[in-house]
Amino acid sequence: MTSIGTGYDLSSATYSPDGRIFQVEYANKAVENSGTCIGIRCKDGVVLAVEKLIQSKLLIPKSNKRIQTVDRHIGIATAGLLADGRHLVNRARDEAQNYRDTYRQIIPARMIADRVAQYVQAYTLYSSVRPFGISAIVGVMDRDGPAMYMVEPSGVCYGYHGCAIGKGRQVAKTEIEKLKLTELSCREAVKEAARIIYTVHDDVKDKDFELELSWVCEESKGRHEFVPQDVWDDAVRAAKASLESDDEMEED
Questions:
Q1: Distance between CA 131 and CA 90 in Å, rounded?
Q2: Angle of helix 169-177 relative to helix 186-200, nearest 10 degrees?
Q3: Which range (123-127, 173-177, 188-192, 243-247) has the least confidence?
Q4: Percent of the chain beyond pLDDT 90?
């Protein structure tokens, strides 16, 4: 049974006869058209990596970041509509601040993920609003250790050891599954994340991109921050070398 074009996709508050909400599916499509974003939970922290496609050569480098800090111990990476991601991060910052003001301690990983997911899900219930056109990966380092969650446009939220969203998610997931995540340190994960982003990037179809890398781990003393420049340089150098070696093997 098909319902496309029969009016069931005009509102997120309307189900189709076969139980689908087309507005949410369209929001997922906006995420699929975005640059790839991956998260890796290691033994000592969480690493976030984003393939930020450059829409114009006139843009200032390192502007409009897709990885942002919510609280000192929380980072969020988004794929999809940039403005929606910025709005969701601001909401997450409000939630973290309210929790800190009320309980005088940092918000736990599960709590911030649940609150963000509930907020996203509320935008799928009413015809006066539209669903968020983003998926978000939330990386946290709290008193229980590292944790990572992914929030989808439907409001669904799951915990992950490794996840990927965006146009290159299938290849990225395959590469992440090959890693021994429980044995990986954050420094090793940064190199693997850079390699995966460079692997999934299509030079023919896609525009140029900037690689964003951040971590929240023991080395950063539990704070979410972008990786140091020397670590970033080493990761990019190793990723490009790996890509060149793969090309040489294919030619042989």
A1: 17
A2: 140
A3: 243-247
A4: 80
Widest pairwise Cα distance in the chain: 63
Rounded to whole angstroms, the Cα distance separating 7 from 3 reads 8
pTM over 0.90: yes
pLDDT of residue 249: 64
pLDDT tens-digit map of 218-248: 999 999 999 999 999 999 999 999 888 876 6
pLDDT (mean) for 181-206: 90
Q: How far apart are CA 179 and CA 143, in angstroms?
A: 26
Give me the count of residues in the chain.
Answer: 252
| Rounded CA separation 197/116 (Å) | 26
pLDDT in tens, 186-196: 999 999 999 99
CA distance linking residue 69 with residue 224, whole number of Å: 7
Half-sphere exposure of 107 (CA within 13 A, CB side): 27
Q: What is the 3-state secondary structure (H, E, C) of the chain?
A: CCCCCCCCCCCCCCCCCCCCCHHHHHHHHHHHCCCCEEEEECCCEEEEEEEEECCCCCCCCCCCCCEEEEECCEEEEEEECHHHHHHHHHHHHHHHHHHHHHHCCCCCHHHHHHHHHHHHHHCCCCCCCCCCCEEEEEEEEECCEEEEEEECCCCCEEECCEEEECCCHHHHHHHHHCCCHHHCCHHHHHHHHHHHHHHHCCCCCCCCEEEEEEEEECCCCCCEEECCHHHHHHHHHHHHHHHHHHHHHHHC
Pairing mode, strands 162-165 and 209-217:
unpaired
Specify the pLDDT at position 202: 80
